[in-house]
Design a protein that fits this description.
Length: about 650
């Protein structure tokens, strides 16, 4: 390495980024071998070169600051490391914000993953350094808003909004081209400040034009910080962003930790409160393989918070999630919160505080995809009183029934293959897979709701049997206003993160996924979660799609491409499989995220296999309170669960559904 450094110096001089890169490599080597002082000295030299040669917007400069911060941490110089972490993070956020305009969903997902890895250092330092400067915790809160609120939601929403008409689409395509060129200039080996300035000016002018012409575009682009969240809170309200991260110290660990970032209107700044290690929660969630009455009772600890019915060796949900933050919320009435990771599988309000007293008995809890929505709420103008309901679907394929349900498909179209088709099998001879079965109560559910909605001024459209096709669902919101209600009573699916190549080798399963469906092994979480619609069993068995018609496997990614900007409520009344039993970096958040990207204001979905009869009862009560008693959707849902709780003591029958705003 020293020899390489000398060669780089001779060829390009000491002001060349390549020379700085060699210094950085040598610094990392010194750090790995315990020579921390030597590492710090070389990295400081590299930082000066990068800053002069590439500027402060270059990703290599941000990476350099991150390494420099790590070397300071190795020397336990926290005060020197913190401003560097914050500076590097600011650069990375700006780069990602610009990149989100032109990257594909897959590309943005990969960059977001890298950004998340860098956040591990930020969150870990908040946990490690109890005397962390307020600026570090503030930055952590802003990053949670950015990651969950903008990267995972708003960036795709921006693209969806821009496609509302042909004029804005053309403008947006120009904007994408400018951003792509600007991104190339930012990362060029020879930075041209004049060219960057010209491109930035063009981008700003075009974004202002689109913001003026496309409703909601400006709000979707907007960045939000913790001060704005605090300003939206009323007295006796609090907001919590839950985060999870790989815990990093100078010594590497494999622990995934969870923490709560809390803000109240009477606090000067947010607080960072460590909660638990993911393994503890995973053990609690995995103690029962069946998501049944025993599972729900044990998980929500209906007997006594001190003695868990699951196992006395495991901590309860109260001990893991609530106890660490309880004192910070003692005089609060309303809690807005955004879950993360395994917390997507938890109904926070159903957690027992003491015998027969839950969190929802003491507080009004409002579950949100991101606290960003407190600052940029979805403004909804009711365009119609249409209600589209799917239920009683026929999942097995029958050519006569299925083709007759696709009346809009001509013989000529059936002979072609749609460009958006997803090939589900890796080969033509997949192993046998279990079929999805008819859900009889789902038909009764939507039929009863149809009559009820009709009595209250709605225009219900019911799709059952072979009529509940993916083809029809994809026409929703295309060129016309989306329905006010979209109610989907069907099966859902989800899969864990696929194993890495290294994991396959370690488990001697290199060819294990040869016959797997592509949505099972995809590295895109939005493909590994979805809903099964009419005729879906044919594709689920691994057969290639029939030319000209959709396959009936409605992925979360496809869901996210819909235009539901005029939809007030989406209900995913998915039975039998449950919609929360998944590990992974996003889990069932794939479907939650999809509905919010599509533009729906409220989403109701299940966390486990709630029995058909009780599901129908809960939905009937909810719609009655909303439409007859004129409650708001959140109040109607909360009241319906309270009524169900009076009828059924066990959480299994009333805590399985959650409302996401």
């Amino acid at each position: 390495m020293k020899e390489a450094k000398d060669i780089r110096e001779k060829i390009g001089g000491k002001e060349n980024p390549d020379y700085a890169n060699t210094l950085e490599d040598l610094a990392i080597f010194y750090s790995e071998t315990g020579k921390n002082e030597e590492a710090l000295k070389l990295q400081l030299e590299a930082e000066k070169i990068y800053k002069k040669a590439l500027g402060e917007k270059h990703p290599r400069y941000a990476q350099c600051l991150k390494y420099l911060a790590e070397f300071y941490l190795n020397l336990r110089q926290f005060d020197s490391a913190e401003p560097l972490i914050i500076h590097a993070n600011t650069i990375q956020k700006e780069i990602l914000t610009n990149a989100s305009r032109h990257l594909s969903e897959r590309e943005l997902s990969a960059h977001t993953q890298l950004f998340s890895e860098d956040l591990n250092l930020l969150y870990s330092l908040c946990q490690t350094n109890n005397t962390a400067q307020n600026s570090l915790v503030n930055t952590a809160f802003d990053n949670a808003l950015f990651q969950k609120g903008f990267l995972l939601m708003a960036s795709q929403r921006v693209k969806n909004l821009a496609l509302t008409d042909s004029a804005s689409t053309m403008q947006f395509e120009r904007l994408i081209a400018f951003h792509r060129r600007l991104s190339d200039e930012y990362v060029a080996s020879q930075v041209d400040p004049k060219k960057i300035m010209e491109l930035e000016k063009k981008v700003n002018v075009l974004e202002k034009t689109i913001t003026r012409d496309v409703a909601g575009f400006g709000e979707a682009l907007r960045q939000v910080n913790w001060k704005e969240v605090k300003a939206k809170l009323k007295p006796e309200e609090a907001a919590i962003e839950f985060v999870h991260y790989n815990f990093l110290t100078p010594d590497w660990t494999d622990s995934v930790m969870y923490a709560a970032l809390i803000i109240r209107p009477d606090w000067e700044e947010p607080k960072f409160i460590p909660l638990f290690e993911e393994e503890s929660m995973d053990s609690l969630l995995s103690i029962h393989t069946e998501r049944n009455v025993v599972y729900a009772n044990a998980l929500y600890d209906i007997l006594d918070r001190g003695v868990s019915p699951v196992s006395q060796s495991l901590k309860t949900l109260y001990q893991l999630i609530w106890k660490p933050i309880e004192k910070e919320l003692s005089d609060i009435q309303t809690i807005f919160y955004s879950p993360t990771g395994l917390l997507h599988r938890i109904n926070l309000g159903a957690i027992s505080l003491e015998f027969e007293v839950t969190i929802d008995d003491r507080f009004e809890t409002v579950r949100m995809s991101s606290l960003r929505e407190l600052v940029t709420p979805r403004e909804l103008t009711i365009q119609n009183n249409d209600a589209l309901l799917y239920g009683g679907l026929t999942y097995n394929f029958d050519s006569i029934g299925f083709f007759s349900s696709n009346e809009e498909l001509t013989t000529q179209y059936l002979a072609t293959r749609g460009s958006s088709q997803l090939k589900l099998s890796q080969n033509n001879s997949p192993t046998k897979r279990q079929d999805f079965r008819l859900l009889r109560y789902s038909e009764r559910e939507v039929m009863k709701l149809t009559n009820f909605l009709d009595d209250h001024g709605f225009i219900p459209i019911i799709r059952k049997g072979f009529m509940g096709t993916e083809d029809f669902l994809k026409t929703v919101g295309a060129g016309v206003s989306s329905p006010r209600i979209l109610h989907l009573a069907t099966h859902g699916y989800f899969f864990d993160d696929p194993p890495s190549k290294a994991e396959k080798v370690l488990t001697r399963s290199v060819n294990a996924s040869e016959n797997d469906l592509v949505f099972k092994i995809s590295d895109q979480p939005m493909v590994r979660a979805g809903l099964i619609l009419s005729g879906g069993n044919y594709a689920w068995q691994g057969n290639d799609p029939i030319p000209g018609i959709e396959d009936g496997i409605f992925t979360a990614y496809e869901f996210s491409q819909m235009n539901l900007t005029n939809t007030e409520l989406v209900v995913l009344s998915a039975c039998e499989t449950g919609l929360g039993d998944i590990k992974g970096n996003e889990g069932i958040y794939g479907l939650q995220r999809a509905a919010k990207i599509a533009g729906a204001k409220y989403l109701i979905m299940s966390l486990w296999q709630v029995p058909d009869a009780q599901t129908k009862k809960l939905m009937t009560i909810f719609y009655s309170k909303w439409l007859e008693e004129k409650m708001t959707i959140p109040d109607a849902f909360r009241s319906a669960q309270e009524e169900m709780r009076e009828i059924y003591e066990t959480p299994y029958f009333w805590a399985g559904f959650v409302l996401m705003e």
